[in-house]
Amino acid sequence: MIRAKAFRLAQSIVNGFDAFFADYLNLTLAAHVRFESAAWLEVHDAQQRRQMLYQAKIEEVVKIAKQTVGGNIDDPELWVEVKKKFIPLIDNHRNIEVIESFYNSVYCRVFQHKVIRDKYAFAYHSTAPDIEQVDPLIYRAYRGDEDMADLTEQIIEDCGLENAFEDIDRDIAFMREAIQRDLVPKLPTGFEAADIEVQVLRSLFFRNKAAYIVGRCICLGQVYPFVIPLLHNDKRQLFVDTLLLDSSDISIVFSFTRTYFMVYTDQPSQYVAFLRSFLPRKPVFEIYAAIGFPKHAKTEFVRYSVRQIGRARDQFVIAPGIKGMVMLVFTLPSFNYVFKVIKDRFTPPKTMSRQEVKEKYELVKLHERAGRMADTQEFDNLVFDRRQFSEELLQELRKEAALSLEESGNVLLLRHCYVERRMIPLNLYLPGKSDQEVRDVMDEYGNAIKQMAGANIFPGDMLLKNFGVTRHGRVVFYDYDEVCLLEECNFRAIPEPKNEEQAMASTPWYSVAENDIFPEEFRLFFTGNAKARTFFEELHSDLYDYRFWRGLQEKIAAGQVESVYPYRRVKRFRQR
Question: Among 105, 310, 317, 326, which has the highest number of CB atoms less than 10 A from its own CB?
């Protein structure tokens, strides 16, 4: 009897995944038309709907599974049989690794993320084969020519967009110049045109208001990546904005700070393998997330972290920097990520609830992150070896986050936490830097605030400690407990005092509503760092003016969507 139930349950999960994946692909497929028609508000809506689709399908599958089995499905021994029946059902599935993650999600939903063992689910091991060779069917292949101009034009023509180009000859000339300057000198000495094969992924990568052609040149066994961003002018004509040929620039395009791409692939592992060929420093889970598979990315992260933490010789410690009022943050020095646990009690003046904090993190997850907000993975019932925790950290957890902590022997369990990429807090980055370095990072800091605001996000608490600096020198926001939509804020100027008593008052003598923001007060964020403040005011003093913020609100209310460039503006062929 249990075997029959197990088979029905396994089959319902397979059916549920296939139904989910079809809906997922259809939502992604329509990105092509959304770009052609410049339907930018629909782009944002589709991103949200696609992310919410997964959890909705998990809930539906669990409900159907209960009906299919005809009884309780929370018997762990039943799931031993379910996994045995499930494996042969997916033996020839094109997406074994992703459907395993879907199975895990159903299992975790049933057991509330408890009793996670490999005999019940695909927790730490996968049945998916390692992919070493990229299937030629996922890309178009071209042979090199003498100056690459004809080849470049063919690649653009084959991308399948129906919009006319603003000036294709001009764009080809720009790309030809970039190739001669930035690619040809890197190629092996003595190569000939016949030695070059150019491979271009068949699907465009859509995000924000851009479509990206992604490919690689293969020359005498060496791989040279390229990315071609295509944008609209105000007449919906296309133009090539730049040609990225540097691996570091391309890595930023796929950064953990970016919104997930809409890229149509019915076999994501193949796209991951292609991208990994020229992004070797980027973990597999970050690439899965970048191309729109964050749930499987979470599975891959768990497997990666188990390996990395298991080999570590150091201990988890409280993360460097000023302690948060809402989150207790800790890290393993040899591991490039931080763990954030919501405190039991928030330090005044923080007054929000635990649920409100979770909602803030969910808001960021579903929103356009504009390359300025770190991606965050949320976990329930994450298990650690208590012996890997420093005594100071253990005491801090017991004191500040006892409601999220469970200890049993050497097992330490966190009932809820978030994981983010570790960065250098901006306030710790500044000491000892040269004037030019401080100026550059303050420019980045101001740009980060402006780009988040352009994406309809107000960070709330803009203290330097809430921003981090990446290895590429970019400034990224990572503390989300006070974020809100920019359109919800009321930006005001501080009223002029009418008398000396008002001027000398230690507290505001004027009324202040909960959503009132006074940009003039942003100068307080630089308390103790006069140099940083001087450079910031030189570069971004407009952020102190309430009219700047209201201007952005008017654009958002009018349906305008700001362009987001995942590369330096100096990289653009023309400044627009």
Answer: 105
